[in-house]
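Final report, closing paragraph on structural work. Over the funding period we assembled a curated collection of sequence-structure pairs, and we close with a single example.
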Amino acid sequence: MNHVFISYSNADRAAVDTICSFLESVGVPCWIAHRDEPAAEFYQTPIVEAIQSAVACVFVLTRNSNRSRDVANEVHLAFRSKRILVPFRLEKFQLGGDLLYYLDRVQTIDATAGLNEVALRQLGDVLKRLIGEASVQKQEGDQDWRACEAAAMRGDAEARYRLAVHYSDEQSETLRPAEAVRWFRAAAEQGHAESAWKLALAYRSGNGVVRSEPEAARWIQTAAKLGYAPAEFAWGQMLLQERGESANAREAAVWFDRAAAQGITDARYNLALLYLNGRGVERNYPRALEAMRECAGAGHAGAEYYLAWMLMHGYGAPADHSEALLWAERAAGQGHEMARRLVRELGSEAL
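Its predicted structure, as stored:
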């Protein structure tokens, strides 16, 4: 990753050739489609790879490029791929569409006075600095990952987890899903909670391993038992969905309680529903109301609705239609359809 990608309209090829020739003469490797795109390949594939592996992406701004769908697609991909964007303006005009959205506030190198050596040298200096910084970062990163790999091979669970995350990064050149799964499994088998969770997600999605819901469930349960909050919540949900037995609901309540204690709002909301309905636990309106109020305070639309409903009917506290209307309106504002009906009902009562 030591080249820069140049994005441009085909109508501006002559100017782009001048830019590319100068940059390469001062030691900046360039990738331009009309020269470097391999023949007989699917058009977009090499461009995608060139953008994702570039140090930076230069956007040659002209009226032509402002109208170009290809340039719009390239700036979107470069931004999504977290590449450094370098606008190089050749003409004075108003940016529009995607170029306006992505480049309007990015520092631009101005060449509207002409494609002269001053502007080209300014562009070259910026790009050489970026390439130098990227080279240093890569060397430091390579040293870090060599140390991480060595620690992983020695059996360090945290190093194995970090290595797996590195191999699972979709924005990285090192994306290797099967290798990520191997290291997540190694760490999970040592009791690394987040690795067990990541392994469960891999089995659920089939990313790097053959998709398997039973294996996903096994590793979710493992991660939950290791105290990983998202897994505690997920395992509680799975227990509720499994045949709906009361024993499962009781166990689900335990897992929701543990996840809620670690700040998982959805877990507290599900626990509130269990107390409201007496499912798996003894019905307890005050406790359900308290939990709904906590979740509603965090902006949970479902909790806002149920809090309004409980206050309307006097479950867990004396009826309070004014406060009920307030919470119903908040839930309705988030698109909760039942809350909208409740707002109309409470509003009609006030007339």
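Residues 4-139 form a domain with the Rossmann fold fold (CATH 3.40.50.10140). The longest helix spans residues 117-153. We thank the funder for supporting this effort.
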